[in-house]
Amino acid sequence: MTWTMHLPVLIIVVLLCSAFISPLLFRWCRKASAPALLAALLGALAAAVALLVRLYRSGSFSYYLGGWAPPFGIELRADFLRVYMLLVLLGTGLWIFLFALRNLKYELKKEVLGWYYALYALLMASMAGMALTGDLFNLFVFMEICAIASCALISIKETRDCLEASFKYLILSAMGTGCYLLAVALIYMVTGHLNFAMVQQALPEAVALYPNNVLVAMALMVVAFGTKAALFPLHVWLPDAHASAPSPSSAILSGLVIKIYAFAMLLLFYTVIPASLLESIPVTEIVLWLATVGIILASIFAMVQEDVKKMLAYSSIAQIGYIFLGIGLSNRTALVGALYHLLNHSIMKAMLFMAAGVIIHAAGVRSLKKFHGLGRHLPLTLIAFTVGGASMIGLPGTGGLIGKWLLALGALETGRPFFVLVILASSLLNAFYYLPISVNAFVHPLQDGQQAFKPVPRLMLFSLAVGIAAVIFFGIASRPVVEFLEQAVQFLGP
Amino acid sequence: MEILRNLAHNYYYLVAVILFVIGMHTMLTNSNMIKKVIAMNIMDTSVFLLFVAAGYVAGGQAPIIREGLEISYINPLPGAMMLTGIVVGVSVTAYALSLIVKIYQYYGTVDTDEIAVIRGSEQ
After folding, report:
1. Whole domain around residue B74: which residue ranges?
2. Looking at this predicted complex, what is its ipTM?
3. Are residues A466 and A387 in contact, defined by beta-carbon separation less than 8 angstroms?
4. How far is B69 from chain A (nearest CA, A)?
5. What's the rounded Cα separation, in Å, for the pair A397 and A317?
6. Domains of chain A, residue spans
7. pTM over 0.90
8. CA A319: distance to chain centroid?
9. Rg of chain A in Å (alpha carbons)
10. What is the pLDDT of residues A381-425, one digit of tens each?
């Protein structure tokens, strides 16, 4: 079983190569280009599962790119936490791509589909890289690839809104990466290392000698990952970007891209920054309060939106707040809750954006006021929307409940019941804006002037059904995943 | 006084940080998109300068090892990394400029304030 040690790099390489091949295939052999990417995604997912099997057999390991060991080479780490993220990424990515196969034909010009596949593969490769890398500078490179790919997934639709939104996103995310690179420079100056483990070893000594460097670096990191993951005051780019993008892009941007930055921040905080330093400065406290304000305010903003995709985008800002809440509480239960919510939210938000995509395609409406009576004509779509909404609220039987429950338990364990109230209040707010949509769609009759419904391709409905099943599955059978996550966060500080 | 002396001694770090702040401020507040992109490059370049300055060893030679010669070399790692950083910066710039071309085709201006006015008058 020695070949399995190459799996971490193989996942990234397969996806990167398919990013280069798909536009060529699209030009020469159009029919083969989508199945080729599908095969690459499936292969990557299979590799991630094989990686998991290897982890169970022989524990976590490091892979040195090109055989160069740190401090000179780049290290890829494979442990339970990273492989969990990888499985979430590749599983959700594959599922969203199934939906995209049909939906993109209605959203984009035919000629650009090949480029879309390339960008999709590039985005998946960069996210897999961010999940696996054990090197600060390598993380920066993957972050930039991810930023360009996700901006391009928005601007590929070439309408005015998309172009403006993606320019705004690009500028703010360039600010984020600039801050991150400065933070890396400051850490490199005082420790002389870029490898996660080596930086962690060298930091306590460096903090004693140059405290200011490390403090500024920490602040810059919060700004960098806060911008990228839309932590509250830095979220301004998200609503336009996620609302104007083609629906599959919205699904992957809201479902996965903002999560991977939160995950990268989690890794940096708990595997690079020594626990003693994290306790001595109030950086987790700041993240905690920003997340709290974000959860409440973004829910209120979401209530007043008329456009369904804008509403979902604001809801994403509120939900990413939960993950930052888990990071800020720095308690093992809360962290498990945050990671479980990461899985659930990526499924339910992707499903909600897919349902919105189906509604926009079939009924031609975007405004929430015009959703009346859609339930009778698009039953499965609106059931998916309802299940997604129920999971956002955290109704029993859906995955959303378990994540919130664990977060609340974590808040109680650290002796801060206030955050339980925050979670409850935000669930209530979620109920205020998700439930009326479903009720209106199923109870009220169809509005006048509604155009005839276009047929919905079976593959799109199939992906929605998969989403419903996944949300309910992770709501009922949460035990194995939670136990897995408890094992995964063992090595973390708290 | 000590902090001033330290600053004077490490003035290249100070210059890099000043450039960073100028770049970031212009990028976020200027309404001209081209200037935003230029500011983005200033910001990136300031970090490159900081990195390369951190890798400099006083009196060091270019890091080419010659047999039998015991001299100090400057640290090659920051240089190598910044080459990667420059490539990344170039691709982001190219992409941003291509977006600006498209936006200009729609609005006939590259000023975000004017675009806001145009959009406001349409609604």
Report:
1. 2-61+69-122
2. 0.93
3. no
4. 23
5. 24
6. 1-173+237-273, 282-494
7. yes
8. 11
9. 22
10. 889 999 999 999 988 888 888 989 999 999 998 888 899 999 999
